[in-house]
Amino acid sequence: MDPSWLRWARGLQAIAQNGLTYATDVYDQERYQAVREVAAEMMAARAGTDTESVLDLFARESGYATPKVDVRAAVFRDEDILLVREASDGKWALPGGWADVNDSPSENIVREIAEESGFETRVRKLAAVLDRGRHPHVPAEPYHVYKMFFICEITGGAPKPNHEIHDVGFFGEDDLPELSLDRVLPAQIDRMFDHWRRPDLPTEFD
């Protein structure tokens, strides 16, 4: 679970962002900017960074505040699941990343799999939609994030690491490597095995 201070800071930032988007009175604009600065100070103090960096992060967001979407793929071959080793931390994760604008969820995940692993796939099922902040991912994320997990099957291609992905491999349920807990948790992979074995399971959500 995300700590309370992070949820409070994100909530204040969302109020400020919505206010700056819709308020027309100059004094209201100033008040919402002040709320944003308080949120940035809270987050900077607990994250060990400077307020200006957090304000710059907040300023990149405009319009009505909504969660970001992270898509992740559970791709199986025989009894094993596909994982990729991230160059950024040297740990393993399900293929995926931030959803891109103008692509559907399934288009996003098929592209991410191809880019990160070299495999061509098709989506079989949406297995879960989870609120990242309600699960023990580390480190904490300044944005509010929804994670979408898809069960996919291979239709072609071959392993192909790149500058962001140093290795591609398949692993058994009881033989998982060190995971990038920022991206995926062991319990989430366990549930993907359950969904793969039991296609009739309903989509899970928080």
Helix and strand layout, with pairings?
Elements: H1 4-22, H2 26-47, H3 51-59, E1 68-77, E2 80-86, E3 92-93, E4 96-98, H4 105-117, E5 119-131, E6 145-157, E7 165-171, H5 186-197, E8 204-205
Parallel strand pairs: 1-6, 5-8
Antiparallel strand pairs: 1-2, 1-4, 2-3, 2-7, 5-6
Helix pairs in contact: 1-2, 2-3
Tell me the β content. 25-35%
- CATH topology annotation of the largest domain: Nucleoside Triphosphate Pyrophosphohydrolase
Query: What's the total number of strands?
Result: 8
pLDDT below 50 for ≥5 consecutive residues: which ranges?
none
Principal-axis shape equals elongated
CATH architecture of the largest domain: Alpha-Beta Complex
What does this protein look like?
The protein is an alpha+beta fold. The chain folds into 2 domains: 4-59; 68-205, Nucleoside Triphosphate Pyrophosphohydrolase, CATH 3.90.79. It is 36% helix and 28% strand. Strands 1, 2, 3, 4, 5, 6, 7 and 8 form an 8-stranded mixed sheet that branches. A hairpin with a 5-residue loop joins β2 (80-86) and β3. α1 packs antiparallel against α2 (26-47). It is elongated, with a radius of gyration of 19 Å. The mean pLDDT is 96.
